Each structure stands twice: as structure tokens, then as C-alpha cells.
Amino acid sequence: MPQSSDAVVLFGATGDLCYRKIYPALYHLVERRRLDVPIIGVARAGWTAEQFVGRVRESLDKFVPQAGEEAVRRLLALIRYVDGDYRQEATFQSLRKCLGSASRPLHYLAIPPSMFPVVVTMLGSSGCAAGARVVVEKPFGRDLASALALNQTLHEVFDEAAIFRIDHYLGKEPVQNLLYFRFANSFLEPVWNRNYVASVQITMAEQIGVAGRGRFYEEAGAIRDVIQNHLLQIVAFLAMEPPVRFARDALRDEKVKVFRAIRPLDPGRIVRGQFEGYRREPGVAPDSRVETFAAARLQIDSWRWSGVPFYIRAGKRMPVTATEVVVDLRAPPANVFGTLAPERPNYLRFRVGPDVAIALGAHAKQPGSAMQGREVELFVSQQQGEEMDAYERLIGDATIGDAVLFAREDEVQAAWAVVDPVLRAQTPVYEYPQGSWGPPQAEALIVEGPCGWHNPGASAHSWTRACGRGEAPNRAPSP
Fold first, then answer.
1. Which of 32, 112, 113, 108 is nearest to 68 (CA)?
2. How many CB atoms lie within 10 A of CB 373?
3. Catalytically annotated residue among 107, 230, 454, 461
4. Which positions ≥6 away from 259 have C-beta within 8 Å?
């Protein structure tokens, strides 16, 4: 059984990711008494240890306003700080001294990807990598070639078992709930295949724009930022075969099979968009062709899913912030009720953010003498909020060596292979109004079935979709 890490080292300790996400996560781990080892911040900010402690306390004041003073005191007592340039041996000599007797540190690289090779190489040459684990933040490369190169660099110093590629999306309670619902309920399996499923749609919408990160987004775009990782992970959870157990490699083996079965994206089956005003954002080129919206049609060449289209869509400056999955089922083999039958298919709907819900779309008879139907939505489950933050869960798992919710080398490479063909393809970038559902050209991707894209609502109880003769709201009955 893996031993727990006996120190946590944070590279990029004065940066925004640590400030917004990692320090609150560390606080909750300390509060739950799941972490009581030295926490060493490393940065090149020219700060003193006192300034760094003040930064951590400021983070907690802002993002954990109800933090208990006793837990804050215990967290701050664990804090250490090393200031220096990542390219200088002296910085890592100071780190080695600060680690003291720690022999199994967890190194968290909350730094720009361009610095990964520098820090990893210095950890190896300084002896700080011996017995250690390393957490690498996404993006894991910019394309397949750079992902291969990054993995080669990591493996020069760390074994694969010691590398934890973190995608915070996998730590979210709603995403894990999707996986649990699939494999903990026997009624789903008989219909979860190409014989009964007509199509699958996944929408990840964000109301915000690039939030001042225009320079970063110019290097990423929607395909690299969320489709290659977040949305393909949801596809894998929906399409994978049952793992033999919920364990480190059993789950990841099945995800790799899904990624390898997805046909590489055809440039003719992807629509890219850019919201109006994006080019005026700070750090954005005035002639930028970077997409802030992308929609694609995926084909999975597996026995279970052959012929079933998976439609995925992600965009910024959308009407709402929400992530939803809709699985449309095939129509009954005979239309017993003729024109009086509902036009919409049966479906399963998974709301995986910001709130959580699982719902079933069905048909029932309207009261009256005619055999006329109406659509109803049955809520299977609804849950507000998350008990545990994704970063808290994943950092806690990394400290004990549990890699089940982290990406493996072959998994990352297989996911990049899916999107690699369109990264450099000269496909059009269509402008779309802020607050819309993206460029109308995306509608043409959906060629099967009676309905277009499903559009999530502001709450789990409302959404819209164009089906049959017109667009009408699908609303769940009041709970």
C-alpha cells in the first residue's frame, strides 16, 4: 500500500491558482485532519516568509470566510517558504534543506507549462525527487507532439506511478455522480447501447468571458481548454465499459479504450466560434482566430456505440453557466397514437453543474377523452452544492498515492489524438453575439433525430430545445 507524502511543496506558491484554489483546499484538508505535514511554498517573488503567510491568510479570508481560527492556526503553523529562481541550483538546495527529514514529498507544479521541464530537471539533479510524487496541472501539452515530449521529460525523473496529472473536473462531485449512477443501477445497462440510444449531447456553457486571461486564452482556445480534457472525460464516463473495480488502473484502462475508439475529429464536423468583443480583450490579438466556442460531432467505433453520434459543445459568453448531458433514446418501434403522440424522444438528463440533478423524460396521457400525450420530466435525484471541493479531494488523494481520479500517460495521449487533426486546420471561426448559444452554423452538426441542441437553463428545472414543429420549454414539474 502506498505511503502518505510527508511534505507538500507548492511551486508557483504566490500565483493565482494557489491563491484561489489550493490554499482553501489545504485549509479544508487540515480542518478535516487529513493533512498535518510541512507545506513549503516556492516562488520567485522576492518575498519573506512572513509575506507568504500573509498571502495564505488573505486567501482564506476571501475564499473561506467561515474558516475556524483553530484550523487556520494549525495550517499556518505548517507553512514554510523558499524564495528563488527556478533555474538556480541554490533555490533547490534551499528546498532540500527546508524539507529536512522528509523523504516522500509531493511536489505540486502550479506554474506555467513552459517551466515544467526546468523544475522537473532541477528536482532530479538536486535529489528532491527521490521518493517523491509530482502533481502536474493541465494543460498537459498543447497537442499530441508536445504531450509526448512532456511525458518524456517527466519520466526522466519520475516513474509513471509517481506522476499525478490533475484535471480538477474529475474531482467534482457531480462528475463522479455521473459515473456512480451509471454503474450502481441495474436498470440502465439494458438500454445503454446503440440499440436504444439515438444520440448523446454534452453542453458546457459559461456566462463569463476570458476574465482578464486573454493572453492565456490566445494560447489555448476552447478545444484545448475544455474539450480535450473536461468534455472528453465526460464522454468516457458515459461510453466506457464497466471497470472490474473502482481502482487505480481498472477505471483508467476503460477510459483509454473509449478514447482510442473515438475517431480523430474531422475538420468538417467541428464548428468554431468567437464571441463579439473578444478581440478587444487585454492580451488578445486584434486579428485573433482563437475560438471561444467549439461544437463537434464524435463517432465512437465500439461494439456498444457504433453509429450513435456524440455531440459536444463548449463556449464562453453563453446565456447561462451550466453543464448538462442529454441522452436521447430511440422512438418506440410503432407509433400507436399517430399524430397525437408527443414529438420529443424519451431521454435521460444529467445536470453536472453548477447544481446536480438526474432526470428522466417520459410521456404520459393528458387528461380527457382523446389518447393524447404530454411530456413529463421525472426527477430521479437533485442535490445542491458539493460537500468537498474538487481540489481538496484530488490533493488529498495525491498525498496518499491514490491515482484513480488522475490522468494516466496513455489516457492523455489518446485524448490528444482525438483533437489533434483540428488544432491546426484552417476551419472558419464564426462570430456570435454575447449571451447567445454560439454561431448558428453549429445547428447543422445535428443531422439525426427530431431535435436540435438542448440549451440548459439557469436552474436544474428548466431547459429548452427545438423539436418537431417548434421550440417549447421542457420544464420539470415542481418538486
1. 32
2. 17
3. 230
4. 232, 236, 411, 414, 415, 417, 418
Q: Which three cell numbers stand for residue 401?
A: 498515492
**Chain CA centroid to CA 159, Å:** 25
Interacting residues of 158 by C-beta distance below 8 A, sequence separation 6+: 120, 129, 132, 133, 134
Strand stretches in 207-251, DSSP E: none
Q: Is 230 a catalytic site residue?
A: yes
SS3 41: strand
How far is CA 154 from each of CA 12, 99, 163, 440, 457, rounded to the nearest angstrom? Answer: 18, 21, 8, 42, 42
Q: What is the pTM of this model?
A: 0.88
Between CA 100 and CA 82 the distance in angstroms is 13
377-398 pLDDT, tens digit per residue, is: 888 776 665 567 889 999 999 9
As a residue count, the chain comes to 479
Task: Take residue 368 and report the three cell numbers written for it.
Answer: 380527457
Average pLDDT of the chain, as a whole number: 88
Distance CA(86)–CA(83), nearest Å, equals 9
Strands (E), 322-435: 322-329, 347-353, 356-365, 373-383, 429-432
